[in-house]
Amino acid sequence: MRFRSTLRGTPATRWPWSNETRCASRRPADRLARPDLRSAQMSEPTAGECVAPDEVAALAEIGRAILEAQLDQDQLCELIWELAGRIVPTENFQLGLFEGDRYLVKVWIKEGVRQPPNSFSTPPGHGIIGWLRSSRQPLLVRDFQDETENLPARPSYISDRPPRSAVFLPLPVADAVIGVIAIQHYQPAAFGENHLRLLTVLANQSASALNNARLYLRGQRRLNQLTAISEVGRKLTSILDLDLLLTQVVELIRSRFGYYHVQIFLTERGSDRAYFKASSGHNLNEQWRREGRSMRIGQEGIIGWVAQHGEYLLANDVSAEPRYISDDPRLLPDTRAELAAPLIAEGEVLGVLDVQSTEAEAFGQDDVFVLSTLADQVAVAVRSARAYEAQREEAWVTTVMLQVAEATSQAEGVAQVLDAVVRVTTMLAGVESCAIWLWEDEYEAFQYAASFGLNLRDDADVKTALRFLSGEWPALEQVRAVKAPVALRPDDGPLPETLRTICPGDAIVLLPMLNQGQVFGVMSVSLSQERSPTLSERRLAMLGGIAHQAAAAVDNSRLAAARAEEAWISTVLLQVGEAIRRLQPVDDILAQVARLTPALTGVDRCAILLRDENDEFRVRTVHAVRSELVAAYQDLVVRPADLPLLADACRLGQPLVVDDVQGNPQTPDAWQARFGCRTLLVVPLLVADEVVGALVADDVGASHLFSPRRIRILSGIANQTAIAIENARLQAQEAERIRLTHELELGHNIQRNLLPQAAPQAAGYQIHYLWRSAREVGGDFFDFMPLPAGKVGMVIADVSDKGIPAALYMMFARTVLRVVAFSRRDPAATLMRANAIILADSASDMFITAYCSVLDPAGHTLTYASAGHNLAFYLPASGAAAEPLTTTGIPLGIVPEARIEQKTLALAPGDVVLFYTDGVTEAMNAADEMFGDERLATVLAAHRDEPAEAIANAIGAAVQDFVRDAPQYDDVTLILLKRTALPA
Fold first, then answer.
1. Which are the contacts of 622, defined by CB distance < 8 A and separation ≥ 6?
2. Which of 21, 312, 330, 695 has the most other CB atoms within 10 Å of its CB?
3. Is residue 836 within 8 Å of residue 896, measured between CB atoms?
């Protein structure tokens, strides 16, 4: 009989126990014995009938069995089948669990024969299984033939013998259904309500146990995953070699998680491909790396997509994934599912971790979590390993460059330099061969010069064949034109046949040998995919650096000795300069130079002599490698005639050397006898072409010691010594300048403190003074003295010198004049008495000019006398021109019997009298013009009607406006006296 039924309005559901599924593989049928606890005659209770005691016992036994069962999902499923068999016949039995939209059949019995586990897709609400999952209700079917139209869902049967009755039981946990129990029979009414009730109890208890087992299994799985992740993490942190790290990681991931295939691809900056690095499960790593297996990022395969987007990609059915590119079927024939996760560190995609499975739908979210976690760990490890590799490569590059530099520095001549370069490059730079061609302008050809690693025959024909005229090998012309490296592969362009047969490796890189912007040679290196799968920027830079080093070595091979000599000279002079820079006193500088010179230049003795005012050279310091060599130079004074070599060196201003002093006229016998030297060098110490001393170095053990290099070193030391001596002299001058500045400030202070703080008051008169100090301390001073009967004494004077001595002499003269003025009434008598005292108490060569006057406010008279001083100006109120108040008299401090004339002037209202020093009339502007008496009289007359203070300020302003910014070396001092008008 063939029976077919479908659910109204829904697609047909195919049942796993129908003939549809008989295509599934099965083991040989083994009939199962029916459990002996099942009650074969259990009948349904009628309405109001109690549950039989044996039924209660059966339920209790079922509950106890499930409770005591271990948390093993497969064993629990077997136990549930066994316990169900004690309630109803279970020759057609199925227990399945849900995993997402998949229905995993754990126990499958068909006609008493166990079927292999299987899985099916169960969209929500489809078929009886889907209905049970969504409704969470059991379903009892007494007869499919009678009840098909009323079923909530219709199974699809394609079978000659479909089941007649069935019971379907959900396995509920909280609000979810974790699985289904389905039991069928070929007889109608094989199951009743009583069976449904007992089986429902079994299903409910089983659901809890299965859920606990599932949670336990999930926890154990997660624990195992975390343990494995931790183990992988420890392995990652213990390995710094990137290739070894990746190889061990893929094997460890495969063994710990059971994946069919694990592989890692890494990206490289500047490349659009992800390169294969390691895989598990086979021994093809080296082959795949040699072949340069890679995926184009964003264009090829799952790995290319993940590398571009930085997101994981899960393909549980690779046959339905358009981005999947199958590997070689001979290597990975059974891949059904693939999961790839990006290796991301600090926002940068470093590569892809890819795993594959032989089963479709093999990967779930747990696998995504595990692989993402592993990918993060691998990314960090890759970044660390790359950093470590970068450091190693940097150290390696440094080592190679140092080795090349060392090899070239030890070579003599162009041929040895080139041989050293090609040998060291091949041995240390990871290349298969290295060759150098030099450009010959004469022949316009690249001439073969040296090689290492080429399969050369030892004959001239091959070497001649390696000479390429312009255009014969275009790649050489390209390097010469672009002045940059050019990489070649055999299929990239024509390669000279001779070179193709003798050059090992898979690729050639041509590097320019640049000198002063011109390519005068090309260095070629060949690489193999096995040793150097990729040419990193650092390696290319290293090879370029080697080429530049070779260029420099070739270009400078003949100058190598000179370069080394200059470097040594610079080092020595730097040490000497550093040593004397920190020392200030000249003797300390010279002592340090004398100590350093034998140590740095290898001479036996060094002495430094300074030239004195008698053109004699005095030894200031000496140092020798042995103490007994010092005594001959100590306290030595050398005249140029004593050592002609010294005289000639100073005259010529350049170092002179005598390689063998014996019998040489420049080194007299007396010198040889005293110092016992074999060779002698004299270097003059020059400051602006002036000889300030000499550096003398000699050797007592052997002749011909002073090579040109050593002479240049000693000349450099002598130059630095001369500069240090000059600097010390300048420092001494600066110290003297500071001292003089201090003296000037002190002199100004003395001068300022001796001046009156205010002009005196006299009835009917205005008295005002103006004093402006110059840059240098002068000898100007003025004073006011109150005299009896209301009279006022006024003195203005000027000492002939300047500076501190003039200030001190002025202080002495002021004291004398002040004391004498109080005891004398007449100005002339005061000046003559002061002259006598000054001559008696002072032996100075300085003299003083002074103008002394006495104002009588009551009598309106001015009595005055001048000791060689500038004549005062009298400006009458009548409007007449200013006129000098002439008197005779010589300066104080010159002759003992000084004759000084005295006169008296009657003052009318508005009359003005001006006393001043030569700092007013002799003030000079930038054109060396003096202010003069005429300008002074003009300014005085122009302001005659103004108060005394205004007139004095006008004179000061006129002088300042005249001189402007020109420096002044004398004080501006004046006293202005004016009689006020009579009251109305």
1. 594, 605, 606, 607, 608, 630, 633, 634
2. 695
3. yes
The arrangement of strands across the sheet holding 679-687 comes to 637-638, 617-624, 605-611, 690-699, 679-687, 656-658
Give the residue from 433, 431, 435, 406 showing the smallest Cα distance to 419.
Answer: 435
Mean pLDDT of the chain: 81
Q: Specify the number of domains making up the chain.
A: 5
User: Residues with Cβ < 8 Å from 192, sequence gap 6 or more?
Assistant: 43, 44, 140, 142
Residue 68 in contact with residue 202, Cβ under 8 Å?
A: no
Tell me if 404 is assigned to some domain. Answer: no
Cα–Cα nearest to 368, from 306, 275, 422: 306
| Three-state DSSP class for residue 193 | helix
Going by C-alpha positions, the residue among 571, 619, 620 that lies closest to residue 599 is: 571
pLDDT for 777? 66
- Residue bearing tokens 């049967």: 157
| Domain presence at residue 229 | no
| Residue range(s) defining the domain that contains residue 321 | 239-390
Query: Residue 620 falls within a domain, yes or no?
Result: yes
For residue 179, give the H/E element and its range. Answer: strand 176-185
Residues 124 and 250 in one domain: no
Report the distance separating Cα 792 and Cα 773, nearest Å.
25
Is there a single domain that holds both residue 331 and residue 378?
yes
- Using the structure block, give the residue that is written with the tokens 């392995």: 235
| Predicted local distance difference test score (pLDDT) of residue 171 | 92
* pTM attached to this predicted model: 0.40
Report how far residue 680's alpha carbon sits from residue 674's, in angstroms, rounded to the nearest whole number.
13
Domain-terminating residue out of 505, 538, 556: 556
Report pLDDT digits (tens) over 364-377: 887 888 888 888 88
Name the pLDDT band for 440 (thresholds 50, 70, 90): confident
Q: Which pLDDT belongs to residue 976?
A: 96
What is the C-alpha separation between 737 and 583, in angstroms, rounded? Answer: 21
With a pLDDT cut of 70, the percent of the chain lying above it is 82
| Domain shared by 626 and 491, yes or no | no
The 10 Å CB-count burial string (b at 16+, else e) for 235-269 is bbeebbebeebbbbbbbbbbebbebbbbbbbbbee
- Tens of pLDDT, residue by residue over 324-362, are 887 655 456 778 888 999 999 888 999 999 988 888 888
User: What CA–CA distance (Å, rounded) separates 537 from 267?
Assistant: 14
Q: Are residues 347 and 486 in the same domain?
A: no
Whether residue 42 has pLDDT greater than 60: no
846: domain CATH number is: 3.60.40.10
- Going by C-beta distance under 8 Å and a sequence separation of 6 or more, which residues neighbour residue 799? 778, 779, 780, 781, 806, 809, 810, 813, 846, 847, 848
pLDDT tens digits along 94-110:
999 988 778 889 899 99
Which of these ranges, 37-51, 303-317, 875-889, 960-974, has the smallest mean pLDDT? 37-51
Six-digit token pair at 604?
């036996």
| Shared domain check, 694 and 643 | yes
d(CA 40, CA 828): 167
Assign residue 667 the CATH number of its domain. 3.30.450.40
Radius of gyration of the chain (CA): 59
Among 717-721, 852-856, 915-919, 971-975, the least confident range: 717-721
Top-confidence residue, 530 or 934: 934
Q: Which residue's structure tokens are 């009414």?
A: 189
- Percent of the chain whose pLDDT exceeds 90: 25
- Judge whether 869 lies within some domain: yes
| Domain finish residue from 732, 747, 765 | 732
Contacts of residue 381, defined as CB under 8 A and 6 or more positions apart, other chains included, come to 236, 237, 239, 245, 249
* Residue 151 sits in the same domain as residue 263: no
User: Where do the DSSP E strands lie in 391-444?
Assistant: 433-440
Q: Are residues 848 and 951 in the same domain?
A: yes
Whole-number Å distance between alpha carbons of 86 and 199: 10
Region 583-592 average pLDDT: 78
